[in-house]
Amino acid sequence: MEIKKEPAQAQTPENGCVQPELSVLLPVRDETVNIGIMLKLLTAFVETPHEVLIIYDALDDQSIEATKALQPLYPNLRLVYNELGRGVVNAIRKGVQESNATFILVSCVDDMGPLLALDDMAQVLREGCDFVSGTRYAFGGRRLGGSIMGKVLSTTANILLRMCGSVLTDATTGMKMFKREAFARLDLTSRPVGWVVAFELGLKAQLAGLKLGEVPILSVDRLYGGESTFQLGPWFIEYLKWLFWGVIELNIKRGNVRRDVSIRIPGATATSVKEHAQAQSALMQK
Ligand SMILES: Nc1nc2c(ncn2[C@@H]2O[C@H](COP(=O)(O)OP(=O)(O)O)[C@@H](O)[C@H]2O)c(=O)[nH]1
Ligand SMILES: [Mg+2]
Fold first, then answer.
1. Looking at residue 57, what is its pLDDT?
2. What phi, psi does 51 have (nearest 5°)?
3. Is residue 154 located within the same domain as residue 262?
4. Are 176 and 250 part of one and the same domain?
5. How many Å separate Cα 77 from the centre of its chain?
6. What is the domain range of residue 118?
7. Residue 112 Cα to ligand 2 middle (Å)
8. Quick one: which H or E segment has residue 238?
9. Last residue of one domain, picked from the residues 64, 90, 109
10. What is the strand order of the sheet 176-179 is part of?
11. How far is the CA of 63 from the centre of ligand 1 (A)?
């Protein structure tokens, strides 16, 4: 597959008034230092004209002050109050309502590695996909840091789902980008438990027959600052529920799932020539 990168309109803190093609939705709960790091790296790495929505659930959240302090530096930075109800699923709903762009990215403010894949994900949408998922488990993608249990749950769920017909190699990752109109076709019903909504998005995008893409990401979960909200008990039950649901639905609606997934490998992801060659040859065999 040809690896190409189209020139995109550069965006800087000074020219943040450029019409954003992409809204970066960052749900937050008491984040401070990571918001500033994320904004710096987004500006440095991402060429796609974008706005950033920091979405908080509570009026006493520490993220509010941290974001307000950064706004004079980043005109494309918006603070959004999610009054729809607590939790990431509601923050995403609110973010989509508030977004001004045709492409929407959902991501975590404490994970900087996936930023290297963001322009490539946008390019996959420009080339005709409706929904593109990051992948930590294929084509040179990797997962570093984060809780061991989170990793075990996610890898097990993805292996089982692949056996049952999932075409995504990482349905559970939070890093998902989609077109605004595609989101309207995914009727989200998950409970506000952690990032289980990412799993629901990955499953429903397939079952809705969306044109799908995948881009490998280097996930480096919470390298610095703040605390993980991961709680094994409630997450486990909710993940299990969606896993069963996915297994059953993928079997019943097998015919809905489009198997022609578009893959794009960012130069920064395949960190060695050998890995890049391996990823390319895996692609050729698909
Ligand atoms: N709005 C909102 N954001 C949340 C909530 N829980 C977690 N987040 C944010 O989601 C991202 C990932 O959460 P994190 O606690 O690191 O989860 P982990 O990576 O699974 O340990 C971070 O940006 C958090 O601030 C929530 O209930 N509401
Ligand atoms: Mg995290």
1. 98
2. -115, 155
3. yes
4. yes
5. 18
6. 112-286
7. 10
8. helix 232-252
9. 109
10. 77-81, 50-56, 22-28, 103-106, 176-179, 131-135, 212-216, 262-263
11. 12
CA distance 142 to 269: 9
Whether 89 contacts 233, CB under 8 Å: no
Evaluated on CA atoms 202, 203, 209, 213, the torsion sign reads positive
Question: Which phi and psi angles does 99 have, rounded to 5°?
Answer: -70, 145
- The pLDDT of residue 70 is 98
Write down the pLDDT at residue 279: 61
Domain endpoint, select from 59, 87, 109: 109
| CB distance 204 to ligand 1 below 6 Å | no
Other Cβ atoms less than 10 A from the Cβ of 260: the count is: 10
Which ligand 1 atom is nearest residue 150's CA? 20
Alpha-carbon distances, residue 78 vs 57, 121, 176, 200, 246 (angstroms): 14, 22, 20, 26, 35
Tokens of 181: 């109109």
Instruction: Quickly tell me which residue has 């997450």 as its tokens.
Output: 235
- CA–CA dist 58, 41 (Å, integer): 26
Nearest residue CA, atom 27 of ligand 1? 87
> How wide is the angle at C-alpha 120 spanned by C-alphas 53 and 25, nearest 5°?
10
Which stretches in the chain have pLDDT values below 50?
1-16
Q: Closest by alpha carbon to 212, among 239, 192, 185, 252?
A: 185
Name the domain count of the chain: 2
Amino acid making up residue 107: S
Structure tokens at 234: 């409630």
